[in-house]
Design a protein that fits this description.
Shape of chain A: globular
Distance between the termini of chain B: 59 Å
Strand content of chain B: 25-35%
Distance between the termini of chain A: 38 Å
Number of domains of chain A: 1
Structural class of chain B: alpha+beta
Strand order of the largest sheet of chain A: 1-2-3-4
CATH architecture of chain B: Roll
Number of strands of chain B: 6
Structural class of chain A: alpha+beta
Order of helices and strands of chain A: HHEEEEEEHH
Shape of chain B: globular
Helix content of chain A: 25-40%
Largest interface: A-B, 37 and 27 residues
CATH class of chain B: Alpha Beta
Number of domains of chain B: 1
Radius of gyration of chain A: 14 Å
Number of helices of chain B: 2
Helix content of chain B: 10-25%
Number of strands of chain A: 6
Order of helices and strands of chain B: HEEEHEEE
Oligomer: heterodimer
Number of helices of chain A: 4
């Protein structure tokens, strides 16, 4: 995908994430400049984390999600939830914990899901950039502190 | 206070695609089903396929097929957080 198109789609995708929604969800936006969307998640009695969504090529390819601690340093492990979407094993391409969920680059590039292409999801409701981040946030909410 | 005041509440729907209404709160009947208001919001925000999304107010997940009153609201202004459920995956 041409970078200018990707950049424009990114700008359109992030402009709807308003301050009231962030306050309601405990989100803090650290970066929303193409190709990076970095959002902090916080909740009572939880260790704050950040997710860095690398959106190069959006939405010709899904966003790559990296987990960071509250200060922005990469996390060596991520909280585990009941659905198995937050995976602490080393991803074959990144070598890091990853989100094993449709709509996230590390899912679609994992050999276990090679047949489940991003093209199957990219136009579905809830798989726009804000929708994918929302799904990742819900997985984090359900994870053990 | 008027009878209308006792039978309405102000609603704003927050999504990652924007807010409806853009400013302020939409006055709706307490007897209105939550789903109808979410459908209005989805239409204004150009959201399709929102069946199955989750609507929450603070820690409370709303029963969208019930009225606002049946969900425990008695008036005032509320902000509904509306978004998709956690997606499938795992098993890698």
């Amino acid at each position: 995908m041409h970078e200018a198109v990707s950049r424009q789609l990114f700008v359109e995708a992030v402009k709807g994430i308003g301050p009231e929604l962030c306050e309601a969800r405990g989100w803090t936006i650290y970066t929303a400049t193409y190709p990076l969307l970095e959002i902090g998640f916080s909740a009572p009695e939880r260790q704050s984390v950040r997710v860095r969504a690398r959106c190069d090529g959006w939405n010709g390819q899904p966003a790559s999600i990296e987990w960071l601690d509250g200060n922005g340093a990469p996390l060596a492990s991520i909280p585990q939830g009941p659905g198995g979407q937050l995976n602490n094993s080393a991803h074959p391409q990144t070598g890091r914990p990853f989100v094993c969920m449709a709509g996230v680059r590390e899912y679609h590039t994992h050999p276990s899901h090679a047949g489940d292409a991003w093209e199957n999801y990219k136009d579905r409701p809830g798989y726009d950039l804000g929708g994918v981040i929302t799904q990742v946030w819900r997985a984090w909410q359900q994870a053990r502190p | 206070m008027s009878e209308e005041h006792h039978n309405t509440l102000g609603v704003a729907v927050l999504t990652t695609s924007g807010r409806w209404p853009a400013t302020g709160f939409e006055k709706v009947s307490l007897n209105e089903k939550v789903r109808h208001v979410l459908q209005q919001a989805a239409q204004h925000l150009h959201l399709a396929g929102t069946d199955g999304w989750i609507a929450t107010v603070g820690p409370q997940t709303l029963n969208v097929d019930e009225s606002f009153r049946a969900n425990g609201f008695t008036g005032g202004d509320i902000q509904i957080d509306f978004g998709p459920r956690q997606g499938g995956g795992g098993r890698a």
